[in-house]
Amino acid sequence: MKSGVPAGIVAALGLTQIIGYGTLYYSFSILAPAMARDLGLTVEQVFGVFSASLLVGGLSAPLVGGWMDRFGAATIMTFGSAVSALALLLCAWSPSTAVFAIAIVLLEVASSMVQYQAAFAALVEIRPKAASRSITYLTLIGGFASTIFWPIAASLGEFLSWREIYIAYALLVCLPLHRWIMRSRTPAAIESSGLNREAIAGALPVQARRRGMLLVSLAFALQGFTLSAILTHMVPMLGAIGFGAAAVMIGSLFGPSQVLSRLINMTFGANLLPPMLATLSATLIVASVVVLGLSGTWLPGAVVFAICLGLGSGVNSIAQGSLPLWLFGSVGYGAITGRMAAARLAAGAMAPFVFSVLMERFGTDVALLANACLGAVGMGAFLAVALAAKRRPDALTL
Fold first, then answer.
1. In 3D, which of 242, 202, 229 has the Cα closest to residue 385?
2. Are 320 and 55 in contact (CB under 8 A)?
3. Cα Dmax for the chain
4. Residues 133, 57: Cα–Cα separation, whole Å
């Protein structure tokens, strides 16, 4: 149906998200030891460069979001694909640590042009009234990025250097797909396809939007901190708790659970409004941390932890796209989500270091308790926004 989800565009964006996250994010942890040996650095120093680049990428998100509103998200994604390929080649060539660091920073800035923030904005531009459903489908496809690219990177690393792998990544097919989506947004293409691009209104009254923006940005930042801290340290943390070799098996439950949550939401979540979806996500993430803290070395507790964390993370990705649309509408969506992404990514960049310090100085239990408390504050912020939102007759029905 012409008023429904644009299936071809969602499929194309889904493929680019798998490639984008796989090459620009998930593969890094697999290739980092080889990078460190080649450049004469420690693995910690390589990850330090990566954390700094995540911070810079997060701070660039509001600027990139404004460009999306001005030039179109698909146009920025096309440009970002070219920048990503050039940055991968620069990284592969880098003769020194300084050039390597510049290339990694450039990769993360390019990431904000091609990953979920940009893809969500493109779906809102193309068909606003179907955007929330399209975002759910897109995150379901994109959820396979780690499952696909972790083994790909590990397998390639057996017979290629990390530099050769990055050269191969630079040649992947995102740019032509993004260009095709960009061309589908021309006035002639829109008119011939019959796309319904009527703008949608947000649920928050104008006078409540500033407070709503602050609360939602805070909530997503706290969720970003909690998730980044736990995911970065998950396997070694589980090993330190006492699970030994089983830590990897437990951690492997996260990815499938993340995809499962998106599949469940796609099938049964049509009537669940985004504020409740965001609150559910925060609740699952907090519950996972509390369960791990209370269960100690009890294996079923660790399994519940990994599953709940995956479910919460999967729903969180959907909420990042659908909640701003529901609250603030489709006008200026790129700039709005850019500001939210800046807070979330900056918090996520700091989280691994802060959580590591807490574990080292105060122990794993205290670190988990602090994480759970921050997540609970995020839950409260989402609930406050949900209570403040007054549905208007012309607002989007999700």
1. 202
2. no
3. 63
4. 27
Reduce the DSSP state of residue 254 to 3 states and report it.
helix
- Measured in degrees and rounded to the nearest 5, phi and psi for residue 317 equal -60, -40
User: How many CB atoms within 10 Å of residue 390?
Assistant: 10
> Quick one: pLDDT band at residue 390, thresholds 50, 70, 90?
low
Alpha-carbon distance of 120 to 122, in angstroms, equals: 5
- Taking residue 194's Cβ as centre, other Cβ atoms within 10 Å add up to 8
Angstrom distance (rounded) from CA 13 to CA 318:
15
Match 């964390």 to its residue by tokens.
309
Q: Residue 6 carries which DSSP code?
A: -
Q: How far apart are CA 321 and CA 166, in angstroms?
A: 29
Q: Percent helix, strand and coil across the chain, each rounded to 5?
A: 85, 0, 15
Token output for 184: 């589908």
Contacts of 205 (CB under 8 A, 6+ apart): 390, 392
The residues with which 201 forms a beta bridge, in sequence order, are: 395
For residues 213 and 205, give the distance between their C-alpha atoms in angstroms, rounded to a whole number.
Answer: 12
Rounded Cα gap, residues 43 and 58, in angstroms? 23
* pLDDT digit string, tens, across residues 163-220: 999 999 988 878 888 888 887 765 444 544 455 556 677 777 777 788 888 989 999 9
Decide if 284 contacts 311 (C-beta within 8 A).
Answer: yes
Rama region for 244: left / alpha / beta (φ>0; ψ in -120 to 50; rest):
left
Among 275, 6, 297, 276, which residue's Cα sits nearest to residue 133? 6
Average pLDDT of span 360-364: 85
| Predicted local confidence at residue 186, as pLDDT | 52
CA angle 325, 229, 26 (to 5 degrees): 75
What's the pTM?
A: 0.80
pLDDT tens for each residue of 80-114:
999 999 999 999 999 999 999 999 999 989 988 99
